[in-house]
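Appendix B. Chain record.
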Amino acid sequence: MDDMTRIIAGVASGTSLKVPASGTRPTSERVREALFGALDARGEIDGARTLDLFAGTGALGLEAASRGASSVVLVELARQAVQIAKQNASAVAKRGACEATVVAAKAQKFLAESGAEFDLVFIDPPYDLARDVLAEVLELLAPRLSDDAVVALEQAKRAGEPPIPETLEVLREKSYGDTMVYTLMRAQAPTISE
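Structure tokens predicted for this chain:
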């Protein structure tokens, strides 16, 4: 794991992000760089309404903020991580990015109660998150997605294929060492032929 997490590009490039002493596993800089390079190349970030579930330090959502996302919501349950995410959001906003909203809640509760719609979603759950919990999060997420929304799901390679509900489909999967990143989108409704 990197000793220091920082914003890679955009208006807040180089901003150091605080990391809790324990309990979070920030996405490695190498994975973030590759992920955001691909998202930037496809024009997925600029102006995107962004959601970062299991946000931890907020590194993924705040990277999107730095690169031009119009709004960012960081959802995290752990109290210490919530406080640090708030400090990180403030540091990134001071550099000219949108001010991220930090919500202290379970991902499922946030998704069940939120009426918001998102264009870009990051899901980087704890590696020990139960498959049925991830399945529930993905199921609850689908109605919160705009038509062209992109979801980046990160998990340990050893976890195997994620439990993707019928409402979502995998666009691509990429391996980075022991990490897998799955890019998902809303499943297209089947056309009914007469």
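Further analysis of this model is presented in Appendix C.
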